[in-house]
Amino acid sequence: MSTREDAFRALFAEQWPAVYSYARRRVGDAGEAEEIAADVFRIAWEKQDPANPFGRPWLFRTAMNRLRDHYRRRSRRAKAEAALQRRIEEAPARAEVEDLLALRVAMKFLSEREREAVLLTYWEGLSAAEVGAVLGCAPGTVWTLMTRAREKLRVAMRDTAPVEGGRP
Predict the structure, then answer these.
(1) pTM above 0.90, yes or no
(2) How many beta carbons lie within 10 A of that of residue 42, not counting itself?
(3) CA 109, CA 150: separation in Å to the nearest integer?
(4) CA 159 – CA 131 distance, rounded (Å)
(5) What span, in angstroms and rounded, lies between the C-alpha atoms of 14 and 5?
(6) How far is CA 32 from the centre of its chain?
(7) HSE-up (13 A, CA, CB side) for residue 107
């Protein structure tokens, strides 16, 4: 093992519990806190300089920045879900309540990126290029996300559709 790896392992072993606890107290979810702490140490690995090792304040500042990003993503997700809820509530009268409920349940089967792509495309009216700019990916990736999302929604809607006469 190199000195760089040894130094990083020592930093990780010594500081992981503190960085994880810092994130955990702020997000409340163990999994999210672990992702944030792991991201902090990924950045530390990428930016480390054995001649000038990181201290605890640098790790906490990086964690604070990762938490800000996390809160922004959470806020965008909450806004997208609120927009979906408004759309469901404002849906034309011809839409059946059961269909709207099935759609709401079906959206939970999508990954966060798929859900965001669907909401940005159908509810916000953005093009694939615009959705790609928001999500930080190419328009072709957006089309792939949308294809997967539509298929998941079709399956989920079929599985959650009301049953009449014993047949969905």
Answers:
(1) no
(2) 12
(3) 11
(4) 28
(5) 14
(6) 10
(7) 19
What is the number of alpha carbons within 13 Å of residue 67 lying toward its C-beta?
Answer: 19
Q: DSSP labels for the chain? A: --HHHHHHHHHHHHHHHHHHHHHHHHH--HHHHHHHHHHHHHHHHHH--TTS---HHHHHHHHHHHHHHHHHHHHHHHHHHHHHHHHHHTS-TTS-HHHHHHHHHHHTTS-HHHHHHHIIIIIS---HHHHHHHHTS-HHHHHHHHHHHHHHHHHHHHHHS--BTTB-
Contact 23, 33 (CB under 8 A): yes
Give the N- to C-terminal CA distance of the chain in Å, as an integer: 60
What pLDDT digit, counting tens, does each position of 29-83 carry?
A: 899 999 999 999 999 998 887 667 778 888 999 999 999 998 888 888 888 888 8
